[in-house]
Specification:
This protein is an alpha/beta fold and about 150 residues long. It is built from 5 helices and 6 strands, in the order βαββαβαββαα. α1 packs parallel to α5.
Length: about 150
C-alpha cells in the first residue's frame, strides 16, 4: 500500500500528520503537486512535481494509484476516480469516502456548480479547524490500523 497526496491544496498540518504516520508505519508517501515541495529526509516520503495545468496532478495520481492505495484529497472527482480503481480516498477533514458516499458528494458538487453557474453565491467551505485536524488524524489511524492486519 502507498499513500498519495493531492498536495497543492493540502493543509500543512495534514502533511505533517502524514509525514509522521509514514515514518511510524513505514509506508511510502508521495506528495503530488505542480510546484516544488519540501519534504523531510526519509526513505518513505517523496514529492513528485508535475507540470502546471488543470487537473494535471489529479491525472498523475489516477494514473499511478493502485488498488488498496490511499489518496488524500478534498477533490471529489479525484476521490471518485481513485475509488473506481479500487483505492481509498480520505478527505483532509477526516471523511473516508466509499462508493456510496462519493456518488452523493458528486451529485451535490454538480448541483452546487450549477447554482454557481446561474449566479447564486453558494459560499465556500468552512475554515480548517483543530477539530478537522483531529478528525483526519483519527480516521487515518483507524484506516492504517485496519490495514496492518492484512
Amino acid at each position: 500500500m502507498r499513500i498519495w497526496v493531492d498536495a497543492d491544496a493540502c493543509p500543512a498540518v495534514i502533511k505533517d500528520i502524514l509525514f509522521r504516520a509514514a515514518e511510524r508505519q513505514r509506508i511510502r508517501l508521495t506528495l503530488v503537486a505542480n510546484k516544488a515541495l519540501r519534504t523531510p529526509p526519509s526513505a518513505y516520503i517523496s514529492a513528485l512535481q508535475v507540470p502546471r495545468g488543470f487537473d494535471v496532478a489529479d491525472a498523475e495520481i489516477v494514473d499511478r494509484v493502485r488498488s488498496g492505495d490511499l489518496v488524500i484529497t478534498a477533490d471529489i472527482p479525484l476521490a471518485a476516480a481513485v475509488i473506481d480503481k479500487g483505492a481509498h480516498a480520505l478527505d483532509p477533514r477526516g471523511e473516508l469516502h466509499t462508493g456510496d458516499t462519493i456518488r452523493e458528494r458528486l451529485t451535490m458538487r454538480n448541483f452546487m456548480d450549477e447554482l454557481r453557474g446561474a449566479g447564486v453565491d453558494t459560499g465556500g467551505p468552512a475554515g480548517f479547524s483543530t477539530g478537522d485536524r483531529q478528525a483526519f488524524a483519527n480516521q487515518l489511524d483507524r484506516f492504517l490500523s485496519g490495514r496492518r492486519g492484512r
